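Order emerges. As here.
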Amino acid sequence: MITSRNRTLYFFLIISTIAIGLASRGSFSPDFIKDYAGDPLYALMIYWIIGFLFPKASALKVALISLITCYAIELSQLYQADWINEIRRTRLGGLVLGYGFLWSDILSYTVGVLVGLSLEYKLQKKAR
């Protein structure tokens, strides 16, 4: 269905999702938002990044690549060597790699990618 994604729009979506994700961790956010918003937003950001990198890929292909990426990062948290834990202790390393494996994160990533897929279909429909 997609002939090509608008990279300017996707860049804006990536930056906006990052900003919302960081804000969700702020002291003013309710605990529920702090605890549960980050992982779906992380997966949504990955969806936008994959769409940005592969502007001609189908939405389903972008969703699949995004899920595989998120799941691989989550599974990597089962590996707890000193060198990677040092990276995880940095702010950026912790945000990108996470800290510990949780099955609930797999569900959260799936929700985030499905939100991206849904929003993309709505954007496509609006563009037509």
Summary: The chain is about 75% helix and 0% strand.
